[in-house]
Amino acid sequence: MATDISKYRYNHTMYRIKDPKASLKFYTEILGMKLLDEHHSNESKFSLYFLGYEDPASEGLVRLARQGVLELTHNHGTENDPNVAYNTGNGENGGYGHIAVTVDDLQAACARFDEFGVKFVKRPEEGRMKHIAFIADPDGYRVEILENPMLKA
Question: What is the mean pLDDT of residues 10-18?
Answer without folding.
Answer: 95
